Amino acid sequence: MYKTLIRPLLFKFDPEWVHHFIFKTLKKVGKTATFKNIVRNKFQVEDPRLEREVFGLKFKNPVGLAAGFDKDAKLFQELSDLGFGFVEIGTVTPKPQPGNEKKRLFRLKEDNAIINRMGFNNDGVEAAVERLKKNKNVLIGGNIGKNKITPNENAVEDYKISFDALYDHVDYFVVNVSSPNTPNLRELQDKEPLTNLLNTLQSLNDKKPMQKPILLKIAPDLTDAQLLDIIDIVKETKIAGVIATNTTISREGLQSENKKETGGLSGKPLKNRATEVIRFLSEKSNEAFPIIGVGGIHTAEDALEKLDAGASLVQLYTGFIYEGPGLIKNINEAILKRK
């Protein structure tokens, strides 16, 4: 029904308008008992064999929602009802910011892909905190970044602010230095500034009553040498793991008319490269840390491929938009069939 009726209708409209429309609609109906019962019965797969314990946290299933969809923590409860085992909010920044100018979100239908140049548009970390205070047992990741106006030499302070603000309200943190849509942000992936940033956050973490797992989200465009640096940095800073991968700046092999739009590309074209990065990190590190696999997952087989490559968990974004919530159920059922 989603792919034959709902998606063709939604895809007639501007993608960012559709995103906000869906949020408003789900917010209105999502709190009703009828909605909850319908979606839970249709999409959720409850089975103890799906449970995963990763970096000290217990996930009810290994399929999560990637950051960027629920930037401001407005819909995590309703999204959890659709069957996600965890929801990652953000990227949030210390201060609210509008992001880049519109139009900034593009569907590439022929490629089953999306290009976005949103630019960390969000209501600011304090607004997210107020919404997260109402959380009812959804496992939440907090994806944090820097404000656009903050120069890189002061970026650490932005990450510290969001870390402190979110600490009591999320289960794990994700340090985002890999988005291509904030000027010069990816320079923070270089070994020295990245090590300094992660060590600073780990130092803050050590002072808390209980440490929260800190993960690093990396770009798919890193070279093998840079990926080896990432392995060294993870070991040196003792962070909990890596999310592989963010969107790509590559446009190789695209067919769609608007393929030349600037921004980060996500969806099917990213599938193979994301899997390559996961496998490289897993093999070269001797499985020294957990990896959350994300990028180009549009089928249950795509998810299993990420898990086989070395991922402990997977996340959806573009595949969720193109395939609908049935994809979550399909992945979980495929995992169970392997048991």
Give the name of the CATH architecture: Alpha-Beta Barrel
What is the end-to-end distance? 29 Å
Are there runs of 5+ residues with pLDDT below 50, and where? none
Q: Using DSSP, what is the number of strands?
A: 13
Radius of gyration: 19 Å
Strand content: 15-25%
Shape: globular
Trace the largest sheet across and list its strands.
3-4-7-8-9-10-12-13
The count of domains is 1
CATH class: Alpha Beta
CATH superfamily: Aldolase class I
Q: What is the helix fraction of residues, given as a range?
A: 25-40%
Biggest sheet overview: 8 strands, parallel, barrel
Mean pLDDT: 96
What is the third-level CATH name, the topology?
TIM Barrel
Number of helices: 12
Q: Summarize the helix and strand pattern as letters.
A: HHHEEEHEEEHEHEHEHEEHEHEHH
* Structure classification: alpha/beta
Cofactor: FMN
Catalytic activity: (S)-dihydroorotate + a quinone = orotate + a quinol
Function: Catalyzes the conversion of dihydroorotate to orotate with quinone as electron acceptor.
Subunit structure: Monomer.
